[in-house]
Amino acid sequence: MALVKVFYQHRVDGTELVNHEKEVKLHRDLCEIIDSYPWIKELELTEQLGEGGGFYFLVGDKDGQHASYQFTPMESDGGLLDLDIVMKPGFLNMLGRKAVSKHFGEVSTAEAKQKLKELFDYPVDVLYERYK
Question: What superkingdom heads the lineage (predicted)?
Answer without folding.
Answer: Bacteria
